[in-house]
Amino acid sequence: MKTHRLCTMVILMAAPIAAERAAQAQVAPATDLEALYADAKADLKAQRYSQALEKFRRGLAADPADVEMRWAYLVGAALSYQGLQQPLAALEFYQRFATASDLGKIKLSDEWRHRRGQIELEASKLEAQVLKDRGAVSVSSVPPGARLTADGKALGVDGDAGTPFVAYLTRGRHAIGFRSDGYQTAAKEIVVETGKRVSMQVVLRRKTEPSQVAGQQTATRPATAATAETAAQGGISPLAIGGHVAFWSGLAIAAFGGVATYLAYASDQAYRAGEWDQESVRTVWNIAAIAAFCTGGAAMAGGLVMWLWPTGE
Questions:
Q1: Among 25, 73, 202, 249, which is least packed by CB within 10 angstroms?
Q2: Domain 1-130 belongs to what topology?
Q3: pTM score above 0.70
Q4: Which CATH class is domain 132-208?
Q5: Burial of 72 (0-12, 13-18, 19+ CB in 10 A)
């Protein structure tokens, strides 16, 4: 039954190509790729799956310019893998065909629209078998085209699977890695359950440009070097910086003087209420308040002078 279904698929696969070749027969002779495809199709029909696969893969490596020829090679490779009892590889090539013939991007002929429906049906049946002991992970990235690994091993028949991609993984936790030129590598863990489908997406971050690194290094140089350079370029002078420090320090000390004044007042009220031991406390806070006001005021005055002193430009 399974062999009969594969043969039926081969016949359906041949129909669009045969129609195209008939239309072009008066224009040009068959190309090498067409001849190779015909040989591969004959091997597939005769259930010589290894020979058929080798020819279909060789044709894909030649990168056919004709999109319909490429579709036929992709489907032929999927059928060959299926005949060789390699369902994961077959699903990958069915997936490649589905992506290449996306109905939202390409207008298909009636022949290929029918053919695509047959392929989707065959792929869904095959996937149902695979999901009996695996889970499906639909992986995507921004931007697309990132190369994928699962637990450190490259995904895909040729180890070159790129997003978007559906990976069929065993039950458990897996680490999916993403790599793309010009972007930082990324990794994300996902838990896979048998018979279930999950999705994951990663937004890749661009690698830092050399100029940006240099800028960051400049920004993190020691403050003394940055200050000297700024002063040399006519920016804020070291004297003005000292004025800032002195002024704001003096303000903080004066604020402490205000706190000391309040505590001295509270101690005086307690003394007047009969707490005679508060007299010495009142005296201490009074002295602290006077010292803080004098010191803070002097620091603020000196800071203002330094802050506003001409730079001599």
A1: 25
A2: 1.25.40
A3: no
A4: mainly beta
A5: buried
